[in-house]
From TrEMBL:
Keyword Transferase assigned: no
PANTHER family: METALLO-BETA-LACTAMASE DOMAIN-CONTAINING, METALLO-BETA-LACTAMASE SUPERFAMILY PROTEIN
Organism: Streptomyces swartbergensis
Biased composition (Basic and acidic residues): 234-248
Disordered: annotated segments: 229-248
Protein known as: MBL fold metallo-hydrolase
Domain Metallo-beta-lactamase: 19-228
Alphabetically ordered keywords of this record: Hydrolase
Gene3D superfamilies the UniProt entry points to: Ribonuclease Z/Hydroxyacylglutathione hydrolase-like
Length: 248
């Protein structure tokens, strides 16, 4: 399948995988990769790097928003094969090692199977490796506070709720927010378009996920690159407030 790559800002690319997005940040010959899609998205992931004139060898680091398989998919592959460091919030490191799993259960999915889009999404997730055992064996916490010394100079923003260690990544220089699953613009199980939280069943602690929208509302920028859904252009503050209103 051909990678769906969108050049959205200087050195910044949003890639639509199969139901999940990842982001490529370029600087000269080096690349920062934010999330990696499902395990089954690996061919698309590698193709997307080639589309922007890069390669897996050029990836300086993989930043993970949170350790669900649809975002963690090829992180261990890149770490093991190319020696690429995989960074997460310190609270998410044991999650990536699969010391525990904060993820919607099969039973909860089945109980919500009557909702539009849930069963087709679940079938796709199963086929793409959404439930496989896929740990990162040596994930690392961020090496320093504040902006990371990586292409794009992303600033981790702790946004717990979806998982305990969920992190968005803010790029103040370009006004970009890579929001992961803390703030999305669509999902196969949602009938709503535009800024929103994922449906309730996906959050480990929904009240904290709602509260994290206030953190995102404090960030300056005009470009939202979500973990699910299309790019959203407009004030990050307004996007976070719209999602909060829809969640209440």
């Amino acid at each position: 399948m051909r990678a769906d790559v969108h050049h959205v800002a200087d050195g910044t690319y949003l890639v639509h995988g199969s139901n999940t997005n990842w982001v490529i940040l370029t600087e000269g010959d080096a690349v920062t990769l934010v999330d990696t899609g499902y395990p089954g998205d690996r061919e698309q992931l590698l193709a997307s790097l080639a589309r922007v004139g890069s390669s897996p060898e050029a990836v300086a680091a993989v930043l993970i928003t949170h350790a669900h398989n649809d975002h963690l998919g090829s992180a261990e592959y890149l770490r093991e094969r190319y020696g690429t460091p995989v960074y997460l919030h310190e609270a998410e490191v044991p999650h990536a090692r699969r010391e525990f799993l904060h993820q919607v259960s099969l039973g909860t999915v089945l109980r919500n199977g009557w909702r539009p889009g849930v069963l087709p999404w679940a079938v796709h997730a199963l086929r793409s490796g959404g439930t496989m055992h896929n740990p990162v064996t040596a994930p690392e916490p961020f090496p320093a506070a504040g902006a990371l010394d990586l292409p794009g100079r992303p600033v981790p923003v702790h946004t717990p709720g979806h998982t305990d260690g969920h992190c968005a990544y803010h790029l103040p220089g370009t006004g970009v927010l890579v929001s992961g699953d803390a703030l999305v613009s669509g999902h196969p199980t949602s009938r709503v378009e535009g800024p929103q939280l994922l449906p309730d069943m996906f959050h480990h602690e929904r009240p904290r996920a709602v509260a994290s929208l206030d953190v995102l509302a404090e960030l300056e920028g005009e470009l939202l690159l979500p973990g699910h859904g299309p790019v959203h252009r407009g004030s990050l503050e307004d996007a976070a407030h719209r999602a909060r209103e829809r969640a209440l």
